[in-house]
Amino acid sequence: MTGHARCGPERDPEFFKDLDAVFAKHPGAARRYSVRCLALETDLLKVDFAKQVGVSRIEGDRIVTEFRNRDEFGNDGEDEPPCCEFAGEAPHEFCVRYCEL
């Protein structure tokens, strides 16, 4: 990677400082979550999360994610996979990836 960090503590030190405090305050919940940079999707694949959403499934020992039109999801139907990755600012978080379990 050249130039400035796209994501992480070097780019957003105050965010990660606050995040460290939240993870320390909630160690049980912290084991269930991670922070992931969306640069691969937005910068390299040109995914527009306002219009698209990732849908992940397990194939053998791999997790495969495809990006589909957001209009296909968000109806909370019984057949809809659960959201497993959120983005955005509270209280307006939105799903960026559904996981077929």
Keywords:
four-stranded mixed β-sheet, 3 helices, single chain, alpha+beta, globular, 101 residues
SSE pattern, N- to C-terminal: HHHEEEE
The helix count comes to: 3
What percent of the residues sit in helical stretches (DSSP H or I)?
A: 10-25%
Distance between the termini: 34 Å
Radius of gyration from the alpha-carbon trace, in angstroms: 15 Å
Strand arrangement across the biggest beta sheet: 2-1-4-3
pLDDT average, as an integer?
A: 88
Low-pLDDT parts are none
Main β-sheet description? 4 strands, mixed
Number of strands: 4
Q: Write down the oligomeric state.
A: single chain
- What percent of residues are in strands? 25-35%
Helix and strand composition category:
alpha+beta
Shape: globular
Short summary:
The protein has helices at 13-25, 27-30, 39-44, and strands at 52-59, 62-69, 83-87, 94-99. It is globular.
Walk me through what this model shows.
With 101 residues, this protein is α+β, with helices and mostly antiparallel strands. The protein is built from three helices and four strands. It has a four-stranded mixed beta sheet, with no helix packed on it. The longest helix is centred in the first third of the chain and has 13 residues, at 13-25. The radius of gyration is 15 Å and the shape is globular. It starts with 12 loop residues before the first helix and ends with a strand. The model has no long low-confidence stretch (mean pLDDT 88).
